[in-house]
User: Fold this.
Amino acid sequence: MAILLIIVGIILLLFLVMLFRTLQLGEPPYQNANVELPEVDASRAAAHLAQAISIKTISKEEMETGDYSPFREYHQWLEKTYPTIHKNLKKETINQYSLLYHWKGSDPSLKPILLASHLDVVPVDEATLPAWHADPFKGEIKQGFIWGRGTLDMKNHTIGMFEAIEKMLADGFQPKRDIYLGLGHDEEISGKSGAKSIAAALKGRGIKLAAVLDEGGMISHGLVPGVELPVGLIGVGEKEYVTVNLVAKGTPGHSSNPPRQTAIGVLARAIALMDDNPFPARPDLAIATLKNVAFLFPFAVRFVLANTWLLKSLLVKQLEKTVQTNALIRTTHAATVIKGGIKDNILPSEARAKINFRLLPGDSQASVIEHIQKVVKDPRVEAEIDMADAWGPSKVSTTDTAAYKTLELVIRQVFGNMPVAPYLLMFATDARHYQDVSEQLYHFSPLVLESADIARMHGIDERIGVDAFGGMVKFYRRLIKVWGEAEF
Assistant:
């Protein structure tokens, strides 16, 4: 009986500890952040964004000399449209088509910050044009929206910054710290000639940045599983991008006398084994994100989040149920290209596939190859990293910094008192090129986005609300003032 009582007591104590931890996640982890914001002429800003959309700064994998003329036109348009900026900030052309602006501050002891954007946009598939409700390169304003390629990715950022700074200069504002604007011209095709060259120029001058802000996070509405209220998401890192070439060799011959498996069959089996044996889940970064919004979840969910030391497997099973949340907790892979065979009655001499991986921090190119070899266990299948299609790992920036905390504050000041959480980006941005000149790389696109809006990026009917764009300008005005004056 005594032993039973001891066991019951231990269980009860354990439950009380778990309950206490759960209750600690029951309150909002922030205070109200109300502040008076400046008025913004949203109609004027929208008209300027529409004009920028009409300049076809499309980046392609194969760029001819003549394709860059729209970038030069865009440079000239910026200079004409924002004369005060070009009078007060030093403008520098980097690698012919990227731009670096320097706004000198009054206190040289403070490290500079950099606001990043990119000048290029992705092409529009001509086959989709009939499905568009506006010409993607006309810059139409109708139904309360600015329509066209670049309204979400990311001429909105560039024009939002310029609208904010032009007015701040007119009002006589000067930051304490130096502020740089880094505008790459080839982000959509890796940023190796644009942002990478900008970062190299800064590094060559011995400049270390206190923080960098680039695209990525957003005010999500319904995107966080189980949360219908808006949540601010700040990207603190990116998944590494790696493509692996899988090759299976075979013996060519007549298809009337086939082996048990052709090269295509061997390759197909390897891909199927990989699909059935994904990388193990590592949900720590996702848990950090979810804990910031835990007070919005039902009690049962908070109980699991508060006690992942014991209940982590339950959380993983839940997150694995959707592709979006599954990608938050593990290195993922997808077979994206497959080739093999030349004729229906000839056995293929080889079959090839490209497998695209997005790596969680902590995994590496070496661990990818090791995982494939362990899962496939077939000497007939060769795996090698496609070095032409692999991007290095991204640092995960810390959140216990003045730069992050003031960014979080500004988000709530501009967009309302809401939870703000760090998260890991599933895609790559120009920010990764600035890792040598800054320890703090943050990703935030100051927009409220619904699930349907995400599909518009690089898709059909890309658009942004006129009022929403006005909110972007307000955000940049507030952030430039706060970051420009804060001593960190």
Summary: The domain at 42-236+394-485 is CATH 3.40.630.10 (Aminopeptidase).
